[in-house]
Design goal:
Layout lengths: L1 H22 L2 E2 L4 E4 L2 E7 L4 E10 L6 E8 L7 E3 L4 E4 L5 E9 L7 E13 L8 E2 L4 E10 L7 E8 L2 E2 L2 E3 L2 E3 L1 E11 L9 E7 L6 E6 L12 E10 L4 E11 L2 E13 L16 H34 L1
Parallel strand pairs: 1-10, 3-11, 13-21
Antiparallel strand pairs: 2-4, 4-8, 5-7, 5-9, 6-8, 9-11, 12-16, 14-15, 16-19, 17-18, 17-20, 20-21
Amino acid sequence: MFFVRSYKFAVATLFALLCLVFLGAEVVHAGFGITPPYVRNTSLTRNSVYEQQILLVRGDPDNALDAEITVDAPEIEDWLEIVEGSRIPMPEGVRKVPMTVRVTVPDDVDFGQYKGKIRIKTLPAGDNLKKGQVNISLGAQVDIDLIIIDKEIKDFRVRKISVADLNEGHKKAWLYFPGRIVFKMSVENIGNVDVAPSKVVFRIYDRTGTVLLEETKNTGHLKKIKPFATADIVAELPTRLPAGGYIARYQIYNDDEVKQEGELNMTILPYGTLPLAGYGFIGLSFMHKLSVLLPIFMFMIAVLYTIWFRQQRKKVRGEN
């Protein structure tokens, strides 16, 4: 009896497969997944904005699909936004499509843990099935786990650095305009408030790395980065060294803490070699700045005094 039933099942299965082959039936999409399968952050504060990118991945990109997104998180639904919209196209031939979940924490939310889910379902593009297609709707689930804390975390990670060649400084009249070191950093904010390196310090040595020739630090404030974001930051440092090759030992600070330090080669070229602007007024030494500003201030004081003196004379004449 068991043999007969097994035989009938095998025949039925074979018949179904033959029908699919000869009738030209086609599976619209098979093999669907997401990475990572979660939106998780344990260090958010009020007013934080956090973005998590999730890749929608499928094994068979032969057909155009849509991913339909449904948020199932009643407590925090208003915080969540799918940047690409609630229906994301997955074009034909494309295996991976990004989906960005943006979390905006309100300013009056209670501190604590919040959870929810985002459900993803695949559909034929535009809900249109081609003739002979079989629609198999696949899906996935994104788990949401957020913790809102009453603490500011100011921290960052430096992912990469570089320094460009530069022109040496030059003189105009009695003023010396130094060369401008352009130090680029890719910085990731791993805290929950806006952050930037507090300062960048260069100690510049000769080619052997044994003789310290100059110590310099960045001028001006560095651009701040939003929490959980990564961006390029440029620090500009003045140097009064002549053309030549040098070894620079750098330190990147977060307040009083050295977040990263290292060594790199630096080349200063004769003035005018590169079509790059050097330092302007901000790069002048204190005494040179004073030599420019002091005459201006004296002139302004003289003008103001002259105006005041004339007004006093008019008053005296009027009284007489």
